[in-house]
Amino acid sequence: MAKILAVDDSRTIREMVNAILTNMGHEVVLASDGAEALAMARDMPVDLVLTDINMPNMNGISLVSKLRRLEQYQEIPILMLTTESTDYKKTKSKNMGANGWVQKPFDAARLEKAVNSMLG
Description:
With 120 residues, the protein is an alpha/beta fold. It has a single domain, classed as Response regulator (Rossmann fold, 3-Layer(aba) Sandwich). Helix content is 45%, strand content 19%. A five-stranded parallel β-sheet has the order 2-1-3-4-5, with helices on both faces. Helix 2 packs parallel to helix 3.
């Protein structure tokens, strides 16, 4: 299956996402903020990135923007996984290069559907 980078400052959310994606058969790599994720992404190609927006050190929108500047991440799907719901944040995320949006709280079925959609 796919290798997925999941980024969230909440350990509980990271563990939940990890459990759901692992049960789907994916390999999951976890990061606690955008800066850690960007450092990992530079050295490790993945098939999908899931990121929260509100995180310390580097937020998810900045992460998306910086990933899109890396040649190996120009076509990789990026899914926002966040409590944010404003049209402004959605538009800004999309303009930076995000491909999709999952609102927290989420359940396994909704995350699975979004991941499957992103991976085609």
